[in-house]
Amino acid sequence: MEFGYNIGVITGPSPFIQQFFNDTLFERSGEEPSENSLTWLWAATVSIYCVGGGLGALAGGYWADKFGRNRGLLYNNFISILAAILMGCCYSANSPEMLIIGRFVIGFSVGISLTIVPMYLAEISPFNLRGAITVTHQLLITIGILLGQCLGFFAFYNDSTWSIVLGLTGITTIIEFIMLPFCPESPRWLLIRKNDEEKAVKALQQLRGRDNVGDEIVEMKREHENESSVERIGVFDLVCLRDRSWMLPLIICVVVHVGQQLSGINAIIFYSTELYDAAGMSESEVAYATVGFGTLNVCVTIVSVLVVERAGRRPLLLYPFGVIALWLIGLTVSLALQSQYDWLKWLSLVFVYLYIITFAIGPAPLPYLVSAELWSQGPRPSAVSVSIQVNWWTNFIVQLTFPPMQGAIGEYIFLIYTICVVATTVFIYFYVPETRNRSFDEIVSAFRDRGMGKGNVELENRQ
Questions:
Q1: Could you give the percent of the chain with pLDDT greater than 70?
Q2: In terms of Cα–Cα distance, which of 334, 338, 288, 365 is closest to 117?
């Protein structure tokens, strides 16, 4: 939720933040800053969130192995509190630097949690519910986005209280501080990493609500035996492919995360105000369009939670990515012609909403789920860390380049995202397997048996 909140909250106050930058720089230098310098400063403020996120994701794998999934998230809250203080006090301190540093710090904190949470959820879930439980992670992200948009546009939409809404990210930290101590640690981490079978059994019994958990403990032990020759696998070991069977799952993780970001989703979210202004909407229309966007995002993600175990992972990635390309083309055409036909501004809004419906059903949640499912316990933290880090850095590139590229080529920037979406769709068709209703050991064994370069990895249906 904190991740989503800090995506959505920056949209509403953006004109006040940019004016704050302008006024502060003028007071310090006595000269009016150029429009170009303000554009790049604003882009840096938005995108520095991703720099922190990428570095946080890099640390996330080690953090999860060192402290555990539960305590790792608990300790990470101290970083989040620091960020909330920096952002909440930046206006009263008249310091743009505090805002930028705060965005970096909250990004670092979220980068750690975004690495640990999908892993934690996947490890505590029974395999027949793993998809639905893990996708609730994405549902809370969308709720966070919507909450940030609502507070930013309606409750704190003025030039003196906008910093308060940024500091309110600390509320989610307080909630997590209260609730996490009641959550059990990951049984897989306890058994495979800490070699503590007694605690693992107790945690699993608490999670399942029954005493008989022997079958799952046996499956964890079998997974442990299959990787017993490697005690700890770091990011460097993974990317250097110490085990050749890691190549295809690593490529799959990287491509689906890069494809998610190069679809342009965060360009639309972060810069939705500017996008709607370009479509000729009034200030009130922009506010309601943005909040409507967030509301739709939440509703469709709820649908994704309900269907992911029925439809499977592969179809919910393949078909939505293909359809997104059509919506991006439609958005480009409607924006290009809206100066000639005023009603096309509403058609562009329709294409944005169709985009978010399609994106939220699969490309939004599934990369996080797939990244956690393709790996055994040993390389999983490092693999998820690499995947999330790639996601953050691609996000950073999109956010940093969108304003100047939009200024240079206008609405045709979405054609670039269209090409990336089509390429991702082709890759998914040939290489991404179905992992629904399969244990971690079955999935990993299929990659180990087949290796790289043997065509499409079609895992046998072992139901």
A1: 91
A2: 365
Q: Provide the residue ranges of all domains of the chain, joining segments of one domain with +.
A: 2-198+233-450
Q: Half-sphere exposure (CA, 13 Å, Cβ side) for 234?
A: 4
**Side chain identity, residue 424:** T
In whole angstroms, give the CA distance from residue 410 to residue 429. Answer: 31
Q: State how far the alpha carbon of 218 is from the alpha carbons of 121, 187, 212, 221, 233, in Å.
A: 20, 12, 12, 5, 23
- pLDDT tens digits, 19-66: 888 888 878 877 777 777 787 788 788 888 888 988 998 888 888 888
| Least confident window among 56-70, 106-120, 155-169, 224-238 | 224-238
CA angle centred on 427, ends 426 and 433, rounded to 5°: 120
- Residue for token pair 């006024």: 23
> What is the distance of C-alpha 80 from the center of its chain?
17
Whether residue 451 has pLDDT greater than 60: no
User: HSE of 274 in the Cβ direction (CA atoms, 13 Å)?
Assistant: 21
pLDDT value for 272? 62
Q: pTM for the complete prediction?
A: 0.77
Q: Which residue has the tokens 């999935």?
A: 443
Span 2-198+233-450: which CATH code? 1.20.1250.20
Residue 227 and residue 231: Cα distance in Å, rounded?
Answer: 8
Each residue of 339-363: pLDDT tens digit?
A: 777 777 778 878 888 888 898 888 8
Rounded to 5 degrees, φ, ψ at 445 are: -65, -35
Contact 400, 44 (CB under 8 A): yes
> How many other CB atoms are found less than 10 A from the CB of residue 230?
12
